[in-house]
Each structure stands twice: as structure tokens, then as C-alpha cells.
TrEMBL record:
Pfam families: YdjM. Coiled coil: none annotated. It comes from Morganella morganii. InterPro entries: YdjM, YdjM-like. Keywords: Hydrolase. This is Metal-dependent hydrolase. The keyword Kinase does not apply.
Length: 185
């Protein structure tokens, strides 16, 4: 996925998380924290690629990570997210007050980047260091900007059509499905 695709997808994702009210901090969050947080999170996984947008800004970090792990290695895994959360929680100076909505939007942006890269044929090593690559190749092998924009637009539009209290809605859907299954048995 291209950087533009990741950025669009991350904004759409944080809007969806906001609408679904999955996190109180995001559902009540300030959009001036949510959007920059999601955008920052969307760029973070590609710090392992010196020619990426973020990699060009911080080459002194990007080049060593690239040499050590390669592109779409460690930084495209659940272990990277867990490591980042632990480091953020334990190593950040107490005097730095990072708003909870920004912090959680970064995680949503990061996860949206991983989801976006899973939509390509190359996939990602979600369980790194295990070499299995997870992919749902909807976007093909090359950057397909039209498809990337379409996916982001579908997520964004879907987020506005999701009911505010999705748990109740999902319970109704589940009951309908179970009723159909039991009627067929």
C-alpha cells in the first residue's frame, strides 16, 4: 500500500473506531488529537524502509532497522505494537503528558497500516519472528491507488452508517442469524 493509501485508511479507521465507541478516549476524543495520532501511527510501521516518508525524515533510525529486520519484518508485527506500547508506558518521561486519545489513535493508525499491508499479495509477518505471512490480496501486488482509495472510502462511509450503539445492533443481527440456523436444523 502507498503512504497516501495508509494515511487515508488510518483516518477512515479512527473515524470508525470513534463511531463504534470502542474506546471511550477515542469516542470522546478531540479530532485535533485523533487525526494527527492516526496519521503518525499509519507512518510508523514503514520506519523500516529508508525510502518511506518517515524513513527519509529519520534515516538515522530507519537505516539500522532496515538492515537488522528488513522491510515488512518486525515493524509489521503484533510484537512491534506490543513492544511500542510497553516502551511508551514504561520509558516515556512522566513530564511528557501525551493525551490518551492521541496515544490510542496512534495505535489505531498503526493497526490500520498493518491491515492495509495485509490487503496486498506480499502480506505481513503478523506473528514475527514466525515467517508466516498473512494476506488478503484485494489490492494486488503493485500499488493500486484507486483500489486503496476505494477501500478507505468504504471504511469511512461504513463508519458513518454504523449505529452509535453497535452492540445492540450486533445482538439483533446475531439473533437473526441464530434463528435462521435453528430454523434450518
Amino acid at each position: 500500500m502507498t503512504a497516501e493509501g495508509h494515511l487515508l485508511f488510518s483516518v477512515a479507521s479512527v473515524v470508525m473506531v470513534h463511531q463504534l465507541q470502542i474506546s471511550p478516549d477515542i469516542s470522546q476524543g478531540d479530532w485535533l488529537h485523533l487525526i494527527p495520532g492516526a496519521l503518525a501511527g499509519a507512518l510508523l510501521p514503514d520506519i523500516d524502509h529508508p525510502k518511506s516518508m518517515l524513513g527519509q525524515w529519520v534515516r538515522f533510525i530507519s537505516v539500522p532497522i532496515s538492515r537488522l529486520c528488513g522491510h515488512r519484518g518486525f515493524t509489521h508485527s503484533l510484537l512491534a505494537i506490543l513492544t511500542g506500547v510497553i516502551l511508551f508506558r514504561t520509558q516515556l518521561p512522566v513530564s511528557w503528558s501525551v493525551p490518551a486519545d492521541f496515544y490510542q489513535a496512534v495505535i489505531v493508525g498503526y493497526l490500520s497500516h498493518l491491515a492495509g499491508d495485509m490487503l496486498t499479495t506480499a502480506g505481513i509477518p503478523l506473528l514475527w519472528p514466525v515467517r508466516w505471512r498473512f494476506c488478503i490480496p484485494l489490492l494486488g501486488s503493485k500499488a493500486n491507488k484507486r483500489a486503496e482509495r476505494s477501500v478507505a472510502l468504504v471504511v469511512l462511509v461504513a463508519s458513518f452508517y454504523l449505529p452509535a450503539h453497535w452492540e445492540v445492533w450486533w445482538d439483533h443481527v446475531r439473533e437473526l442469524i441464530l434463528a435462521q440456523i435453528s430454523a434450518r436444523l
